Amino acid sequence: MAEIAPLRAGDPAQLGPYRLTGLLGEGGQGAVFLAEDEPGHQVAVKLLHARFSGDPKARSRFAAEVAVAKRVSPFCTARVLDSDVEGDRPYIVSEYIDGPSLSAVLSAEGARGGADLDRVAIGTMTALTAIHQAGVVHRDFKPANVLLAPDGPRVIDFGIARALDATGTMSSTAIGTPAYMAPEQISGAPVGPAADVWAWGATMVYAATVRPAFGQDSIPAVMHRILNLAPDLGALPDPLRGLVAGCLSKDPSLRPASQQVLAHLLSLAGSLPRPGAGRDAAGSEDATMLNQGAAAAAESARLLSSPPPPLPPFSPSRNAPPDPSHAQGSSQPHGLSQPQGSSQPQGSSQPSGLPVPGPPPPGMPGGAQPPGHGAQPPGGPWGTAPGGPGWPPNGATSPIGDLTRPPARGRRRGIGVLAGAGGAAAVALVVAGTVIAFQLGDEAKPKPPPVPVGRTGGTLRISATTTTNTGGEIDPSHSFTGTDRFLPKQLFTGLVDQAPDGTFRHRLATVIKPDATCENWSITIRTGTTFSTGEAVDPQAFARGWARSAGTALGAGPVLMADIKGFTEVSQGRATELSGVRATASGLEVALTSPNCDFPARLADPVFAPVPRDAGKPDNGAYNQKPIGNGPFKLGEYIRNRSVTLVRNDAWALGKTRLDQVTVQLNSDTAAARAGLAAGQYGWVQLTSDDALAVRGQSGLTTRPMPFTRMLVPLTARGPMADRNARLAVSYALDRAKISEVFGGVYRPAHGLVPTAVPGFGTTRPCPSCDAPDPAKARSLAGQAGLKPGATVRLYVQESPIYQKMAAVVKNQLESTLGWRIEMKSTPITKYADYRKALVAKDASGLAFYAWGPDYPGPYTMLWSLLGSTIVASEKNQYSNLAGYRNTRFDQLISSALRNGSAEARTGLYRQAEKTALDDMALIPLLYDGRGALRSGKYVGLDLDYDGDPTLSTAALK
C-alpha cells in the first residue's frame, strides 16, 4: 500500500465533490492527495500548485496532462475520472492505485531477480507500449513513476508528457529526472519515444542492481556519463541484459521501439496462458501481464515476424548517413543500419535487402520487393565512424554511440527474396546450362598468405577505435563494423577471405559450387583443421556458427543471411538451425530463397565463421566476450573499452604469424596516439577525418580507397532536377579535384557510381561530366533545361563537418558557374529520419548529399539499392532510391547479372547498368572515400586490407 501522510496546514479539505483525506506525494507541478468521492470510493486528486494557478502556460500544461492521460489505455496507468482545469484551483481526479511505487519496493526489499524481475520488465514495457501507441511520450519514466498494482505495473505522472506531433518527435528541453534522461534530452535535441525506451532500460538496471546505470553522484557527473560512457549493467542477467544494452544506445535511432522490446520480451516469456488454465497466484499475475502485453502489442504482432530488435546495423542494414567526424569511431567496412530499427520495410513480411530485381509480379504495381541493403560509408576521409549499434547492428563505437546512422536498427538491411515470377521473359532466370565452381586445384589445400621478409617474435602495439557493441561482444555473430568486425577477423578463419583488391580467396573452402540456378550451393570444406583448443573445425561448426549469426539481431547476419532458407525461423527464435544449411560429411549444402550468383562474395564476412560447441546460444555473454576461434590469433586478454591482447595461434590452419602478440589499445584520442607513435609507443595508428590535413605527407602514412561513394542525389520526381540536362549541368559545373582538396586529397574524385575499390571497377568509367569541369557546357545545358542565372535550386545537407565542408564548395561552384541561387536545407546529422523525410516529401526538389557503399565487394547492392525501379523511396517505406529513378533497361541488366554464372559476364552487365544510370545522370558522383593510418618503419608486411584494417597476419618486425 502506498504511504499516506496526513494533510498539512494549508492543504484543502475539499475540492469540488471530493473530500481530501491524506497526502500521497508532491512534485514540482502539484501535490497528489488521497480523496473520496461522494459515494465514498477512494480516488487520487492532483492539485496544481497555487503559484501556478494564475499562469496560463501552467494551466495549459495541466489541461494537456488530462488530454494525454485520457489517450492512454486505462490498464497501464491511473485512469482519469474527472477534472476541473478552468476553476480557481485546477485539479485532476484519477483512480487510486493501491500499490507502492517500484522505487519504494526496491528501497525496502532490494534488487529484483528471476521471475520478479521478468514480471517488472514485461509489465512496465507493456504499459510503455500502450502509452506510445496512444501517440504519447512520457519523458519522465522512472521507478518512482511506476506503481505496482495487484494486476500489474501502472505508469503515472504525465505532467511532462507530450503528445507526438505530426513528425513523430517533439521539441525538447532538458526536462526529466537526470539519472533516467536520454542523451538527447540532456543535449536539447528533439525527443521521441526512444527517450522512454532509454529510461526503461535505465529503470531495469536499477531494478536488478539498485544502482543507477550512470552513477548517483553530482548531476553534472551523471550527465557526463550518460553522454559519453557506457552504462554499468552490474549483475543484470542475460537475455534481459542484451536487450537493455540496446535500449541504452546513445543514438536514439539505434534503440528498438517499445513495440519491438515488448515483442522480444513476450517471445522470451513463451506462449500466452490458455484461458481457464489452472495457475497459482503468481502465474495468474503473469498471465494478466502477458495478455495485457499481447493486447497492447497488437501492432507489435507484426514485429514478431522480424528478428528481435538490434541492440545497428548497419540494422544497421548497414546503411547510414556517413560522417562521424564529430566523434571518434570505427571504420565501417560495410553498410550500416536500416531506419527505424527494422530489418524490413513497414508492412513487409519478407526480410529486406538484396531483392532480386525484375518486373513486378502480376497484381503488384511497382513491384513489392524489399530494398537492397547497401551501405553508407564511414564518415571521415579516413573512413572512420563512431561505433553504434550493438545491433549492431542489426548497427552497432565511441562512447557517444554512432550518431551517423539513420533511425535504423544499427544494422544493415537483410537480403530479400524474389518478388514473383512475373516478367520472366524479360530476363534470364537461370544460368542457361552453366555450372560454375570456385575451387583451389588438385591438392584442394589453401595456401598460406605470403610471408614478408622479417623476423619471428615481438609485439605490435596498435591504436584503434573503441568497440561499438554495447554489450562488449567480439564474437563473429555480433560482428558488424569497425573494431567489432576487425577483431573477429583476427580470431576466426572462414571459408574465404578478401584480398586487398577485394577479390575473394579460399581459406577453409576447397570448392564452392552452385546449381544451374544459383539458388543451391555445395561447399566442400577442408578437413583436419581445429580451433585453438584442439576441437575439430568441421561442417557442423560452420552450420552452428551460421545459425548463431542468424539468431543475432546485433550483427551482420540479418543483412547477409536473410535469403538463406530458414533464416526467418531462426531469427525469430522458432528454430535453432537454418533449414537451408545442411552439414554433410564433406561440407555444406546451402539453399537460398532466390537466385544469386554473387553468393560466395559475402562468405568472407565474419558472421559466416565456424564456432565451437561451447559457443552456445547467441546470448551467451561468456563466449561473446571471450570467443574461442580458429584464426591467426587467439584472445589473450580483453578489457572492455580499453584494450585487447591477441596471441599467436599455433593451431592456425594457414601457418603461423610472425608476431608473438598484438596489443590493440581501444582509444578515441588519435592525437595522443599519433604522439605515441612518434615516441615509439605504437607501431600502428588508425586515423580519423580530423587527422587528414595534419598528417598529409608525413612519413609512415599509408592510405587506400574504400568502397564508398559520396554523391549528390538529384530528386527527379519534380522540380529542376527532373530534366536530365539540369543534372548534367550540375555535374559539368563541379570541380571534383577542388572538393577532394578539402579533405587532403584522401577522398578522391569520383568517375562513376560504384567505388573503385570494388573488383572490376578500378578504372575510369564512361562519365565525361565527371572527368573535368566544363563551365561553358554546364551553362549551355542549364539553359536547355530552362534554368537561367538567378534560378533557385535547393541543396539538402546534413549538419556535420564533412557534409558542411562539401556543401560550401558545391554551393560556391554552382553559384559561381551557373549563377543559380542555392537554397540550403539543413538537418542535424543525428536526425536521419527527418533528413530522409524531407527528401521524399511531396514538395521535395533539388539536390541532396548522400553516400553509399556495397555490403560486400560487388556492385549489386550499390546499384540496385540506390536505383532499382521497384524500390523507389517514399514516406511509406524505407527504400533508398531517393532519386526516384526508373529505367527498365537498368533493371533488366541488374537482374541478368545476378543470375549469370560467369563472373566476367556479371561484371560486364553491372558496368552496362552503371553506364545507363550515368548517361541519365541518375546520381551525380562526387568523391570516393579513403582510409588512412600511420605505421612505424620497424615493421614489414603491415598495411591496410580491403576494409582498411591492419594486416596483422602478415606483419613482422624487420
From TrEMBL:
<feature type="compositionally biased region" description="Low complexity">
    <location>
        <begin position="328"/>
        <end position="353"/>
    </location>
</feature>
<feature type="domain" description="Protein kinase">
    <location>
        <begin position="18"/>
        <end position="267"/>
    </location>
</feature>
<dbReference type="GO" id="GO:1904680">
    <property type="term" value="F:peptide transmembrane transporter activity"/>
</dbReference>
<feature type="compositionally biased region" description="Low complexity">
    <location>
        <begin position="294"/>
        <end position="305"/>
    </location>
</feature>
<protein>
    <recommendedName>
        <fullName>Protein kinase domain-containing protein</fullName>
    </recommendedName>
</protein>
<keyword id="KW-0812">Transmembrane</keyword>
<dbReference type="InterPro" id="IPR000914">
    <property type="entry name" value="SBP_5_dom"/>
</dbReference>
<dbReference type="InterPro" id="IPR000719">
    <property type="entry name" value="Prot_kinase_dom"/>
</dbReference>
<keyword id="KW-1133">Transmembrane helix</keyword>
<dbReference type="Pfam" id="PF00496">
    <property type="entry name" value="SBP_bac_5"/>
</dbReference>
<dbReference type="GO" id="GO:0004672">
    <property type="term" value="F:protein kinase activity"/>
</dbReference>
<dbReference type="InterPro" id="IPR008271">
    <property type="entry name" value="Ser/Thr_kinase_AS"/>
</dbReference>
<feature type="compositionally biased region" description="Pro residues">
    <location>
        <begin position="306"/>
        <end position="324"/>
    </location>
</feature>
<feature type="transmembrane region" description="Helical">
    <location>
        <begin position="415"/>
        <end position="438"/>
    </location>
</feature>
<dbReference type="GO" id="GO:0015833">
    <property type="term" value="P:peptide transport"/>
</dbReference>
<feature type="region of interest" description="Disordered">
    <location>
        <begin position="291"/>
        <end position="408"/>
    </location>
</feature>
<dbReference type="GO" id="GO:0005524">
    <property type="term" value="F:ATP binding"/>
</dbReference>
<feature type="compositionally biased region" description="Pro residues">
    <location>
        <begin position="354"/>
        <end position="364"/>
    </location>
</feature>
<keyword id="KW-0472">Membrane</keyword>
<dbReference type="Pfam" id="PF00069">
    <property type="entry name" value="Pkinase"/>
</dbReference>
<dbReference type="InterPro" id="IPR011009">
    <property type="entry name" value="Kinase-like_dom_sf"/>
</dbReference>
<dbReference type="InterPro" id="IPR039424">
    <property type="entry name" value="SBP_5"/>
</dbReference>
